[in-house]
Records
---
Amino acid sequence: MEMKSTSWLKARNLSRSYRRGSSEVRALDDVSVSVERGEYISIVGSSGSGKTTLLNLLSGLDSPTSGTVEFQGTALQLMTKRELALYRAKKVGMVFQSFNLIPQFTALQNVEIALYFNGTNAKERRRQSQAILEQLGLSDRVTHKPADLSGGEQQRVALARAIVKKPEILFADEPTGNLDYENAQQIASLINNLNKENYTIILVTHNIELAKKNSNRIIKMQYGKIAEGDGAKGEGSMQI
Ligand SMILES: Nc1ncnc2c1ncn2[C@@H]1O[C@H](COP(=O)(O)OP(=O)(O)OP(=O)(O)O)[C@@H](O)[C@H]1O
Ligand SMILES: [Mg+2]
């Protein structure tokens, strides 16, 4: 049997359960999905359907209870600690639903840290981080700490941190969730431009309009499963 994957990023039969005392929550239940380089995928679905869980597994932040995630034919689970750290530091950019900014750091330092893990020198770290914050309309907020930023500003700092290292895959968990219409449109068009530069985008959103307008494919999650189709090219792409 031919087992070699041709996909760029591939999840096979992914499950993730959380145990709480005697009860078990199946956050993700036997999910398989293939992603081609340069795709823009929107993940939609109601609260608790497993969207964040799926992003955390694809980005190597969390490990599945069963199943595998492969990047360019290599299972994340079989990577050494160092290889996995490199995957996370160089290939993956992540915007968390709850931002996860470092409270003691300024906006600028929060962005610079991504380049620190990437091995960029201090001068370049500063230059590139300042440029991206400026692009996101935050040039007069660089010295603010997260507590002194609005929700939307924190969200933009989190996006700046994710994209400053030019990741091959951008995972974004509701990156416009805290933004007003105008700022949301601005972030959406910035993400579109990244996709045009061949970044692969995997984005969780509750905004169906934005998803339909911008992405190549929509994956709908329901009770820990993909609701329609397995997302493979040529089949199962959801039409809405
Ligand atoms: N650490 C955990 N321990 C126990 N259960 C968890 C844990 N993390 C998530 N869950 C459960 O797993 C399910 C899926 O959670 P997940 O965060 O993936 O949902 P989601 O689709 O991202 O929801 P939302 O739209 O609200 O962000 C939920 O029922 C949640 O309560
Ligand atoms: Mg979530």
---
Amino acid sequence: MVANKIIMDLYDGNNAFELIKEVITPALERIGSKWADGDIALSQEYMASRISEDIVDSILPPESSTRRDVPVIGLTTLGDEHMLGKRILSAFLKASGFKILDYGDMKAELVARNIKNDGVDVIIVSVLMLNLVSEVRELRSVFDREGIDTKILVGGAPFLFDHDLWKEVGADSMASDAMESFEQINSLMGIVQ
Ligand code: B12
């Protein structure tokens, strides 16, 4: 497979996140624009993302053997079917020693029920679709109604374009990439590194 060979030629065993950022994500962004311009079908975009997922899976680092059980981190999308960003984030945080509960894609009510049961300290929400940003506001209002004090950390394209958006939707913090999410989790939990 051509895509696989291109990445493997560049992969040195230690640069997975760099390759994802510099090569795979920009390629998918170009593919997304081609779809938006009507040059390719959604099925082709889908196949490109499946191929990318397989490549990403093959280069992501394994979980760290030094695991910490506190804080408990949940990860979800709120109606968004774009899963690759979440998967990358999860791998990075697992490699950093965090235990991650991945809820897949859920409605706010269900996320709230799960994090209550699981005692989640920080819920990370990945959003790619602009119209789903309002779901974070919904999550905040469910938390307020139910008295849930789990911190909400958001990230993804809409929050990169508008740096104050996370405040407007009632999140506790935002991060622009996996490394920053690590720092934000520690800061939200008052953990000094
Ligand atoms: C692949 C893809 C799909 C695949 C997804 C497959 C899958 N299982 O993931 C399929 C084909 C299913 C799909 C469907 C749709 N898609 Co689509 N898709 C894409 C595409 C091409 C790439 C997305 C991707 O995987 N990028 C690579 C990953 C690694 O990047 P990422 O998600 O941005 O994540 C990175 C960062 O943002 C960050 N990050 C992400 N989340 C978080 C969270 C935190 C806390 C932190 C710190 C960081 C972080 O970390 C990641 C690594 O750096 C984009 C194009 C684009 N420009 O993004 C369109 C795109 C996102 N899709 C789009 C659209 C419109 C759709 C559909 C509505 C199409 C349709 N008519 O059905 C549906 C939506 C379904 C839904 N409810 O979600 C639009 C969105 C427009 C908008 N304004 O919101 C885009 C931008 C295409 C375009 N140019 O118009 N899509």
